[in-house]
Design a protein that fits this description.
11% of the residues lie in helices and 37% in strands. It has helices at 2-16, 135-138, and strands at 22-27, 33-39, 45-53, 62-63, 79-82, 85-87, 99-107, 112-117, 119-120, 142-147, 151-156, 162-165. A hairpin with a 3-residue loop joins strand 10 and strand 11 (151-156). The longest helix is centred in the first third of the chain and has 15 residues, at 2-16. Keywords: Signal. This is Aggregation factor core.
């Protein structure tokens, strides 16, 4: 009997500490760069707003969405490739912008949403040229997540092009 109660107590303690973390990954690609927003938890994430802010990035990154703008050579518009994502404040991302804001309806547990766009660095000398972005060039860019209009959580991209937002505990 004691063993069953102990196992039940242990399970309830573990399940009470399940977090709904979100991992955002940047992947440089040709001709489109990709952002993947993965829900790494065991519960669904619903109705969040997210801002990707490149302003503090090591490579002084910008979104390149126009042929005749601040970017280099190839440009790509914002395009949702998976999931329930929509631009929050505008119908498009302007060329040279350093921020984009999204509304995300839902991401199921252990699932992901993604979008593509072109990102260029604005360094005078860069590792792979201005049209290709490395993980260390997106380092220090930030992700802000607003949950239900109540709380803003922030994370920075690391040298591998990933940011992890620690969300509140999953609700039952």
């Amino acid at each position: 009997m004691f063993k069953i109660k102990f196992v039940t107590l242990l399970f309830s303690m573990l399940s009470a500490n399940v977090y709904a973390d979100i991992e955002i990954s940047f992947k440089d690609g040709a001709p489109k760069d990709q952002f993947v927003i993965k829900n790494t938890s065991t519960c669904d994430v619903k109705d969040i707003s997210m801002t990707i802010d490149l302003l503090q990035s090591t490579g002084r990154l910008i979104f390149d969405t126009s042929e005749s703008g601040k970017g280099v050579e190839v440009f790509q518009l914002f395009e949702v490739t998976r999931g329930q994502i929509a631009l929050k404040t505008a119908t498009k991302v302007n060329d040279g912008d350093t921020q984009l804001s999204l509304d995300i309806k839902a991401i199921a547990a252990n699932d992901f949403a993604s979008f593509t766009i072109d990102v260029d660095d604005t360094l005078s000398t860069s590792q792979l040229g201005n049209i290709r972005v490395t993980g260390n060039e997106i380092a220090n860019a930030s992700v802000l997540v607003n949950i239900h209009g109540d709380k803003v959580l922030k994370a920075a991209f690391d040298l591998n092009g990933k940011a992890r937002v620690i969300m509140p505990k999953c609700s039952a």
